[in-house]
Amino acid sequence: MNQFSERKRGLRRYIMKIIETKIPEVKLVVPDVFGDNRGWFYESYNLEKFKSLGIDTVFVQDNRSFSEKKGTLRGIHFQKSPAAQTKLLCCTRGEILDVAVDLRKGSPTYLKWVSARLSAENKHFLYIPKGFGHGFVTLTDNVEVLYKVDDYYSKENDRSIRFDDPSIGIDWGIDNPILSQKDITAPLLKDSDVNFVFGE
User: Fold this and answer.
1) Are 155 and 148 spatial neighbours (Cβ–Cβ below 8 Å)?
2) Which of 77, 124, 127, 134 is an active site residue?
3) 99-154: pLDDT as tens digits
4) Burial of 119 (0-12, 13-18, 19+ CB in 10 A)
5) In sequence order, what are the beta bridge partners of 91?
6) Which helix (H) or strand (E) holds 6?
7) Residue 156 class from Cβ within 10 Å (0-12 exposed, 13-18 middle, 19+ buried)?
8) Whose CA is closest to 169, among 88, 77, 102?
9) N or C: which end of the chain has fewer CB within 10 A?
10) Cα–Cα distance between 63 and 116 in angstroms, integer?
11) CA-CA-CA-CA torsion for 94, 18, 103, 185, nearest 10 degrees?
């Protein structure tokens, strides 16, 4: 029996930890990675283990994105209610600065934002609940991002706001990002129909 099989059978417990951010609802998830001379192994998602850490979201869809060039910025994106999405993100190739911003009116952290570096090397995940906008900027070339969502894509509820909205003031660490036409023409928050309310 090889080393990974022994671990998967429970001879060595899988340990996952949560690192709190400045916004309590947004969490950095750090898996326990097992490695040897062949490479590494880790569980990227396990519903029961997430539940034991206080995350009981059931995800229904996986999405992947690829960005060829360093400095590509995607965001700020969200689906408004009733199709709002919780996201669990990781970077499987390269490195990103991942950002979540609280868009829930009445929240004690309304318009506050947090960021985390996610990379293929550190294998960290960012958990972003409903009511938050999301975006990331690539810190390397050839970046792949994988993320889970707990509701399906809804074209009629798909929204974006300007990445450089002054009312939010995100520090992306870049002056001239590569943007899609959608993100170039995204409205400011004050002109958006975002409908998130704290406590709902």
Assistant:
1) no
2) 77
3) 999 999 999 999 999 999 999 999 999 999 999 999 999 999 999 999 999 999 99
4) middle
5) 145
6) helix 3-8
7) exposed
8) 102
9) N
10) 19
11) 0
- Is 77 considered catalytic here? yes
Active-site hit among 124, 127, 134, 147: 147
Backbone conformation region of residue 157, classed left if phi is above 0, alpha if psi is from -120 to 50, else beta: alpha
Q: Rounded to whole angstroms, what are the CA distances from 4 to 20, 36, 38, 43, 112?
A: 29, 9, 10, 11, 41
Joined tokens for residue 130: 């409903």
User: Which residue carries 């509701």 as its tokens?
Assistant: 151
Angle at 41 between CA 38 and CA 42, to 5 degrees: 165
8 A C-beta contact, residue 159 and residue 80:
yes
Alpha helices (runs of H) in the chain, residue ranges in sequence order: 3-8, 47-52, 181-184
Residue recorded with tokens 């190739």: 93
Whether residue 72 contacts residue 137, with contact meaning beta carbons closer than 8 Å, is answered with yes
Q: Taking 90 as the threshold, does the pLDDT of residue 189 lie above it?
A: yes
Measured distance CA(110)–CA(119) in Å, rounded: 27
As given in the structure block, the two tokens for residue 4 are 């990974």
Greatest alpha-carbon pair distance for the chain in Å reads 60
Give the three-class secondary structure for 100. Answer: strand
Amino acid making up residue 24 = P
Q: Is the pTM of this model over 0.70?
A: yes
